[in-house]
Amino acid sequence: MDDKRAAGVCCSPGCGDPVSADAPVPLCERHLAAAADWAGAVFGVEDVLPSPCLACGSRVGVRYPSGWVCASCEWVHGEVPEETVLRARVNVVYYLRLDTRIKIGTTGNLGQRMRRLWHDELVAIEPGDRLLERSRHEQFARYRLGPSEWFERSPEIADHVARLSLGAGDPWALYARWVSESIAALG
User: Fold this and answer.
1) Is residue 48 classed as helix, strand or coil in its secondary structure?
2) In a domain? residue 74
3) Which pTM was predicted?
4) Does the pLDDT at position 1 exceed 50?
């Protein structure tokens, strides 16, 4: 095998096709693809779920030949959650953007709330309820647009959103983790 690797040819018996210089193992592209297919069948392939997880709302899943499971809570995609799972409530204060405005609101069911609101992007979330939401409204009161929950974009709000987003990446992934933790706490 070391002779074949040094020669840059596939180590699969009887193959002898060239191996790419950056290949992780001395296999030609055809045999690397076959190995990847085998690994996907055995270990699954992480991908975007066909629709959000019914248990936690995550959009990331693991695809197996037998079907999908949620990558966050491992719920079998398509199965209707039990009543216990549906009771897993996570209160968040959310920050969403529509054009040049930011809405600061709160909900215990982020997916349902976002489906009902016209918006361009969910930019950040933080754990909290109406008390934290009210505190944020007071904190950014000078940017408030009338008596609504909408605020003009400002460097102060942008800095706050950036701090909430540090290390969190996609707010939906963060929310899915919190829901998964809530489900686990219910036992």
Assistant:
1) strand
2) no
3) 0.57
4) no
